[in-house]
Specification:
The protein is an alpha+beta fold. It has a single domain, classed as Gcn5-related N-acetyltransferase (GNAT) (Aminopeptidase), CATH 3.40.630.30. The protein has four helices and seven strands; from the N terminus they run βααβββαβαββ. It has a seven-stranded mixed β-sheet, sandwiched between helices. A hairpin with a 2-residue loop joins strand 2 and strand 3. The model has no long low-confidence stretch (mean pLDDT 96).
Length: 144
């Protein structure tokens, strides 16, 4: 398993993971924009040349990062891939002098919420009807 930065050739695999794991469908241009905004914040978990997970983040304010998307393909969960991605991402944030990280998570994603809490993220508030299917989300924050 290798954690590396995103390249445009990863788009089909990342889009597939997004549809399956996040239940969203985004235009190709979004992935390219995220890549332009903060290349070091768009990480790929690569297994033998195949993206099996990713974390996409941007710098949202001075010394603050926002995780936009984070997912691991269904057949590869519970293998520590998400942990490797998050560890690499938080190290990148620390090296860049970030003091705060924020993200959103579906209220129904209890496993994801517990995962983030293990990393020190706290639930800030509810985001009513945040997702395209109408599900509420939580805004979560971590101070570094």
């Amino acid at each position: 398993m290798q954690i590396r930065t995103f390249i445009p050739n990863d788009i089909p695999a990342v889009a597939s993971i997004v549809r399956e794991a996040l239940r969203e469908n985004y235009p190709t241009s979004l992935y390219l924009d995220i890549h332009k905004w903060w290349r070091e914040g768009f990480l790929i978990a690569d297994l033998d040349g195949r993206p099996v997970g990713f974390l996409a983040a941007v710098v949202s304010a001075e010394a603050q990062a926002r995780v936009l998307m984070f997912a691991v393909a269904a057949g590869f969960r519970d293998r520590g891939i998400g942990t490797q991605l998050m560890n690499t991402f938080l190290a990148t944030c620390a090296n860049r002098g970030m003091h705060r990280v924020e993200l959103e998570v579906r209220r129904s994603n209890l496993g994801g919420i517990k995962f983030y809490q293990r990393y020190g993220f706290d639930i800030g508030f509810v985001l009513p009807s945040f997702y395209t299917d109408g599900e509420d989300g939580y805004k979560m924050f971590k101070t570094m």
